[in-house]
From TrEMBL:
Keyword Magnesium: no
Top-level taxon of origin: Bacteria
Protein name per its UniProtKB record: O-methyltransferase
GO biological process: methylation
Organism name: Microbacterium ulmi
InterPro entries named among the record's database cross-references: Cation-dep_OMT, SAM-dependent_MTases_sf, SAM_O-MeTrfase
Keyword terms, alphabetized: Methyltransferase, S-adenosyl-L-methionine, Transferase
Keyword Methyltransferase among record annotations: yes
Record-linked Gene3D superfamilies: Vaccinia Virus protein VP39 (3.40.50.150)
Length: 230
């Protein structure tokens, strides 16, 4: 008997099975996605199984303070906020005012709004402003960092993840597979080049120990990198 071929129809069926079996339905999360769609935001939020992974990573790592780079409609933010203690906090950075407005409404409706601070602006500009409070002791270092913004800036975001984190901080970088293009030496798209440079940094920078996994889910063929700040 021949092995099944992983066609998009088949892997999406498996993804639906995983999501139905292990994630289930959640009114607040589904409403967040619906409101994002209604407002015309792009359909680039993480898949439900990936949202659950972020939630579990926050719990497994014992994270109390989380940094998210790229909020969109707050689907992943809700998952992260639910994975930290009641007195924990998520700082999420969003460049687009409309996205931030929708995210705030979704967070408040989901019951985690009091845990989440949305910082509006380009992440490359906002990240340096977080360092002073850490250095003067008025804010704790981040225990988990989720990077899901423009791929061209991944090396910038990773550098700040190390600077704002601590030994043992978990760093998650989304969308590292780029539909297989990340392994194509002839690929010239800026997002692919930025992703590749980020992975190369994770593989060579002594501040990190990392791996990456390919994913086949509702969002297609992609991947996720997971690292520890050492």
């Amino acid at each position: 008997m021949s092995e099944p071929v992983p066609t998009p129809e088949r892997w999406r069926a498996v993804d639906r099975y995983f999501a139905e079996t292990l994630v289930g339905h959640d009114a607040a999360l589904e409403s967040a996605v619906a409101d994002q769609r209604a407002a015309g935001l792009p359909s680039i939020e993480v898949a439900p199984v990936s949202g659950k992974l972020l939630h579990l990573l926050a719990r497994v790592s014992g994270a109390r303070r989380v940094l998210e780079i790229g909020t969109l409609g707050a689907y992943s933010t809700i998952w992260l906020a639910r994975g930290i203690p009641d007195d924990g906090s998520v700082v999420t950075i969003e460049a687009e005012p409309l996205n931030a407005e929708i995210a705030r409404a979704n967070l408040d409706r989901s019951g985690v709004g009091d845990k989440v601070e949305i910082l509006l602006g380009r992440a490359a500009d906002v990240l340096p402003t977080l360092e002073a409070a850490i250095l003067d002791g008025s804010a704790a270092r981040f225990d988990l960092v989720f990077i899901d913004a423009d791929k061209e800036s991944n090396t910038i975001y990773l550098d700040w993840a190390a600077r704002l984190g601590r030994s043992g901080t978990v760093v998650v970088v989304d969308n590292v597979g780029r539909g297989g293009a990340v392994a194509d030496p002839a690929a010239t798209r800026s997002d692919v080049i930025g992703t590749r440079r980020g992975l190369e940094l994770l593989g060579t920078d002594p501040r990190f120990d990392a791996t990456a996994l390919q994913t086949l889910d509702a969002k297609g063929w992609d991947g996720v990198a997971i690292a520890l700040v050492v």
